[in-house]
Amino acid sequence: MSAGTTDVARPASTSTTWWRRPAMRVWVGVAVAAVVLFGLAPALLSDFRLNLLAKFLCLAMVAVGIGLAWGRGGMLVLGQGVFFGIGGYLMAMHMKLSDAGPGGVPDFLLLYGDGVVPGWWEPLRSPVVTILAILVLPAGIAALLGLAVFRRRVRGAYFAILSQALAAAFAILLVGQQKVTGGTNGLNGFRSFFGYDLADPVNKRMLYFIAAGVLIAMVVVVRLLMHSRYGELLVAVRDQENRVRFLGYDPANVKVVAYAIAACFAGIGGALFAPVVGIISPADVGVIPSIGFLVGVAIGGRATLLGPVLGAVAVSWAETGLSEQFPSFWTYFQGAMFILVVAFLPQGFASLGGLWRRRRRTPGDVPGDLGDPPAPTAAPVGSGTAPDDDAQHAADAARTAGRHT
Amino acid sequence: MDALFSQLFAGLSLGSVLLLAALGLALTFGQMGVINMAHGEFMMAGAYTAFVLQAFIPDAGISLLVALPVGFVVGGLLGLLLEVTLISRMYRRPLDTLLVTFGVALVLQQLARDVFGAPNVDVRAPAWLSGAVPFLGMNLPKTRLFILGLAIACVVVLALVLKLTPLGRRIRATVQNRDLAETSGVSTRATDRLTFFVGSGVAGVAGVALTLLGSIGPTLGTNYIVDAFLVVVVGGIGQLKGAVIAAFSLGIVQAAFEYSTTASLAKVLLFVVIVAFLQVRPQGLVSVRTRSLA
């Protein structure tokens, strides 16, 4: 049943066609995604729909990072909204400043604030500084928090709760500092994106292509990372942190890197979200949207490469389609998805294919635990450790799922 | 001096609300390692219980006194239902319980929105809780004092139950060593169910108390759940002692920050303080000693 034995019994490279090889699958997947995103979607979709898709792609960027930190690293990140928000607000502030012109004051500062641009805003007039800040600031904050938390071996539920508290505090801060952040309304009404007029459909299209390209690049980065020594270490830390420690590595550093990369991805997602959607507000970054990011990842398959992306896009698509017509139905649906998928299909829909394949190959051999395979979560809180076999098994299951994507 | 005392009272008052919100959470989290995101929604259920009861009982004072036990039962039954249907399936996956119960929380919130409407509703406070008590030159609102008293009463009752009753003995045994307790003839399954009933019931009581502080709405639980969790994190997975100290300390620290800065900045500073505190005591104030590496 474990991935190890099936691979030994069936040397993948000789008996399967080249495109079924694990290494090729992802590249084939990326090529297909590129054709769909760059060829089919722009040709078939209206400008409105394409813009909508661009928004979903931005949300999927957050999901890629969550897949890395949570699916591979076992860190349940409940506060990705913070990093999404930092990226989004940085970009929004730059766009507001450049709309106002050199030395100008953005409209909302005149409305709520003192009518002067705060000192710490000034550097954001420069596009280069803005882009650097978007790349560095979320990752830096995540690294600081991660170092503080993981060095002291705070983990599992405690880390999840802390990351969630960060999201709550951030949202409250944004609302409270209305003078400089626009308060509940957030920042909106952008006219240009690095000098390109946002009212022009051609430039909207360009934004879509940027989002698609960035998303594909992120998936490739995660793919390369997971097949490096670092990727092996990350999975090892998730499953048996102490063994990794005894081998002479510092699990804290391994975790911090994954958390920082996830934060960076979320920041980039937010930075593109602001111009694509045209608004960034505390409602996009608080506790509820932060956990909302997890829905797509959990449904798609947290430990796989493409599962989080496809899950995030599918969930946002369904949300846009359904919530307009049946707003209350959508919340029930979202809640039910959380309950059903996590309780009965912890590996997400991406694991269905693998389970089905294994069941077909060896009928009767598979224990009837389809509804409850072990999850690749961190060790339970408190004194109860999962038996080693369980963790090992979970690792195998997760890896199989990853390979089959 | 007056400012100091009134800030201290504000902190104690905030702490008592936090304590009520976190007490049940500490119990269930401590015993089962289960993170119940729907705890806030159980509070909301308690609050709406008080609202519904007031429609039937015209006297605000009597309806409040009736609402406290009824809220306990409503919250407790919701918790029991959750435990039996979902949480009992996922004991070895504490992080997944967090997601599942978040799903439950979403459903309950929407249910409240569909049944009671999205706008907030008000529960009338009884006449004997209006006004304030003069004390050392300050005016302490009676509602705040009532909640402080209620929080203390809840802690005392829970402490007595844990210390003296057979149920309390079983709960303590399960917290300290689940496997050994099971071997010694304690039905940990039954204990878990009862613990969840009691813990969620306290959430219901907390919800009834919150109706005295302001209007209530479907998002009532969301406003308190994060703070309640922070109390549990700082308090540690111990017994009630950690939660009590943590709730009042956090309440006082936050009140102090709010006094010297703004309310929104206070939240961020509080978060920084908590992370700094965890550098000193990563397992929280009080923790059950264990020899396991994990």
From TrEMBL, chain A:
<feature type="transmembrane region" description="Helical">
    <location>
        <begin position="329"/>
        <end position="352"/>
    </location>
</feature>
<dbReference type="InterPro" id="IPR043428">
    <property type="entry name" value="LivM-like"/>
</dbReference>
<keyword id="KW-1003">Cell membrane</keyword>
<dbReference type="InterPro" id="IPR001851">
    <property type="entry name" value="ABC_transp_permease"/>
</dbReference>
<feature type="compositionally biased region" description="Low complexity">
    <location>
        <begin position="394"/>
        <end position="405"/>
    </location>
</feature>
<keyword id="KW-1133">Transmembrane helix</keyword>
<feature type="transmembrane region" description="Helical">
    <location>
        <begin position="128"/>
        <end position="150"/>
    </location>
</feature>
<feature type="region of interest" description="Disordered">
    <location>
        <begin position="363"/>
        <end position="405"/>
    </location>
</feature>
<keyword id="KW-0812">Transmembrane</keyword>
<protein>
    <submittedName>
        <fullName>Urea ABC transporter permease subunit UrtC</fullName>
    </submittedName>
</protein>
<feature type="transmembrane region" description="Helical">
    <location>
        <begin position="206"/>
        <end position="226"/>
    </location>
</feature>
<dbReference type="InterPro" id="IPR017778">
    <property type="entry name" value="ABC_transptr_urea_perm_UrtC"/>
</dbReference>
<feature type="transmembrane region" description="Helical">
    <location>
        <begin position="26"/>
        <end position="45"/>
    </location>
</feature>
<dbReference type="Pfam" id="PF02653">
    <property type="entry name" value="BPD_transp_2"/>
</dbReference>
<feature type="transmembrane region" description="Helical">
    <location>
        <begin position="76"/>
        <end position="92"/>
    </location>
</feature>
<feature type="transmembrane region" description="Helical">
    <location>
        <begin position="256"/>
        <end position="280"/>
    </location>
</feature>
<keyword id="KW-0472">Membrane</keyword>
<feature type="transmembrane region" description="Helical">
    <location>
        <begin position="52"/>
        <end position="70"/>
    </location>
</feature>
<feature type="transmembrane region" description="Helical">
    <location>
        <begin position="292"/>
        <end position="317"/>
    </location>
</feature>
TrEMBL record, chain B:
<feature type="transmembrane region" description="Helical">
    <location>
        <begin position="41"/>
        <end position="57"/>
    </location>
</feature>
<feature type="transmembrane region" description="Helical">
    <location>
        <begin position="94"/>
        <end position="112"/>
    </location>
</feature>
<keyword id="KW-0812">Transmembrane</keyword>
<feature type="transmembrane region" description="Helical">
    <location>
        <begin position="265"/>
        <end position="282"/>
    </location>
</feature>
<keyword id="KW-0472">Membrane</keyword>
<dbReference type="Pfam" id="PF02653">
    <property type="entry name" value="BPD_transp_2"/>
</dbReference>
<protein>
    <submittedName>
        <fullName>Urea ABC transporter permease subunit UrtB</fullName>
    </submittedName>
</protein>
<keyword id="KW-1133">Transmembrane helix</keyword>
<dbReference type="InterPro" id="IPR052157">
    <property type="entry name" value="BCAA_transport_permease"/>
</dbReference>
<keyword id="KW-1003">Cell membrane</keyword>
<dbReference type="InterPro" id="IPR017779">
    <property type="entry name" value="ABC_UrtB_bac"/>
</dbReference>
<keyword id="KW-0813">Transport</keyword>
<feature type="transmembrane region" description="Helical">
    <location>
        <begin position="145"/>
        <end position="162"/>
    </location>
</feature>
<comment type="similarity">
    <text>Belongs to the binding-protein-dependent transport system permease family. LivHM subfamily.</text>
</comment>
<keyword id="KW-0029">Amino-acid transport</keyword>
<feature type="transmembrane region" description="Helical">
    <location>
        <begin position="63"/>
        <end position="82"/>
    </location>
</feature>
<feature type="transmembrane region" description="Helical">
    <location>
        <begin position="6"/>
        <end position="29"/>
    </location>
</feature>
<dbReference type="InterPro" id="IPR001851">
    <property type="entry name" value="ABC_transp_permease"/>
</dbReference>
<feature type="transmembrane region" description="Helical">
    <location>
        <begin position="228"/>
        <end position="253"/>
    </location>
</feature>
<feature type="transmembrane region" description="Helical">
    <location>
        <begin position="194"/>
        <end position="216"/>
    </location>
</feature>
